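Annex B.
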Amino acid sequence: MVVGNETPPMEQHNTSTTADSEIQNKARLAIIELANMISVPMSLNAIVRLNVADAIWQNGSNSPLSASEILARVVPSGGDAHNLERILRMLTSYGVFEEHLSPNSSNHRYSLTDVGKTLVTDSDGLSYAPYVLQHHQDALMRAWPRVHEAAIDSTTEPFVRANGEAAYSYYGKKTEMNELMQRAMAGVSVPFMKAVLDGYDGFKGVEKLVDVGGSAGDCLRMILQKYPHIKEGINFDLPEVVARAPTIPGVSHVGGDMFKSIPTGDAIFMKWVLSTWTDDECKIILENCCKSLPVGGKLIACEPTLPEKTDESHRTRALLASDVFIMTIYKAKSKQRTEEQFRQLGLSAGFSALRPFHIDYFYCLLEFQK
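O-methyltransferase domain-containing protein: predicted structure tokens.
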């Protein structure tokens, strides 16, 4: 007999079983998605290689196109529109494209979302497309099946195990890889630097600025255009890197080794340098920066900063995925860090304080004060 609102034992059991089954079904679905996740970056890589974003964008029209229409623009000799549509649909589910269904028809057409627009080549010839390609080169792909080895033995990173030498030296011997890296970094750097120059005024009062790891000098060029009072900019990087750097008014290209010494200046700027080195190596870099600055000088470092607590946000996932990339490709003990970890590194190297500026979802601007 059932009394009041009590649920019969069998009904309670059935409800519990149904809930458990639903949880298990969702868990199995999630692991299937994760196991097949390689389809996402490889399909993105395919879209970039086919230049699909520019084909749809067409100078800003962004008119929805079918797979056949896209294929006619990127492969005039023909191709398989059905297979291209399979790629487009999958990436639509990840927000790269927007799908348009015609009334009373199964015909699918596709336009670019804001995410997809990051792959469009702008008036300066830049986009995030080279950044996608750079991550999926053969030498890098060979390293990924060996990620587990970084947990077994961290003395050698997976890239070295797969390719026989460190990534930086390997890139230096491969002209195409190095050029792709330069294009990838330019595509990422320019929009970030625009955000820096719009949201940070710490370059005021600086007369001599050193960019450590400045590559071709693109960041210095932008900074000097915004702050013409800076009398001298020094683009400091490896000799073989600055040897290929273009002439920039007001900028001197200086080759050297940041682990030995860094040119003096009122302020030092660096972008995404510290994350690719170990704590001990970062301390040496920071100590050399500190030695090269006058009292009251500052180091302006742009780095991704990890959250203290892990969550499922796009930002946290992007940061942690990038952290594993660094571990796999550059150094098994190099890493991205929290703000507090950066603060402690700065203090140990002789800086007196750290001020963080959050002007970008991915990077944080860290101002180390001497």
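The longest strand covers residues 298-304. The chain has three domains: 37-118, 121-188, 189-369. Further annotation is deferred to the next reporting cycle.
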